[in-house]
Amino acid sequence: MNALTGNKTLVDTSAINGWAVDADPRNDPTYPYRNRDQDPGLTADWVRPRVQQSNVEVLQSIEHIRRPAVFGTSTPPSAVSGMIRRVAFRYSESNWMHWLLLMGADRINVVEGVVEDLGHGKVPNIPGEMGVRAEWKHNKKGLATKVAVMAAIGVGAYALFSRGKARRPARASEVARLEL
Hints:
Helix content is 45%, strand content 0%. It is mainly alpha-helical and 180 residues long. Helix 1 packs antiparallel against helix 2 (96-119) and helix 4 (132-138) crosses helix 5 (140-167).
């Protein structure tokens, strides 16, 4: 389409590399797994498979009127991250707030998982789970940047909290103790 005039121009698809690569049935990429002679595909006679039943909460997009036949139930929404996910599913998938809330819920869920591990007496291997060894092997510059940023944040937080202690006025009990 010409952007200035709005006229559509025909494109020679034979000049496009890979165009209609699956049009030739002799070049079927599903061969030999799919037997097309006995598989009519989706037709009017197609019967919807029985829908999976769930005994846990499953969040569903507002764009769909029903769930797919099969869905995941391994991690139902829970705690703070679950509350955020429920709010996220009130928004359309085309709204950035939907995805922003889901990403935030994922990060909070990571912290919830660490707290849960600690609650069960298991100390998580956070550097191992973050892939520090692989990052050291394949992306030393990126790892160094992350360590520098974390160190800067740590030093900044320490300086901020240390300064707050120095400016805090002495409590009456501390003054009384000093006068004795």
